[in-house]
Amino acid sequence: IFGDNVEDQMGSGRYLAFYLIAGVVAGLVHTAFSPNSNIPTVGASGAIAGVLGAYFILFPRARVTTFIPLFFLPWFIDVPAIVFIGIWFLSQLSQGLLSLGAIGDFGGIAFWAHVGGFLFGLLLVRAFVERPRAPRLWIPDDRSSG
Hints:
By secondary structure, the protein is mostly helical. The protein is built from five helices and two strands.
């Protein structure tokens, strides 16, 4: 839902670099906030959080169809991306803050990796977006008419 749109804005090569760097930054942030964690962090959620941060900046008014379980009835609503992703980020941040005071590991989820990846995407997305190229004008060369 999010990645292909961000990739369209960046181009495949820049998107790959963005994704990999977001994953590394997310891992570093997680390590900084959980240096004594005994649980190995394996996964791509920090890099995906970076993509969410980029989407938040690039497509804030896009609509995200969201499933809300209402007892046994499925309920689908369209929510602006800025609201959907904003709520997700606030939940990650609050869980990360709660984990700071917890003894031991907090559910095995790297909340600070999510926060770090998201902030990377939010702050550095513009550095990876392809800029439109100015059209080149063709100017005839007088030397060729000779």
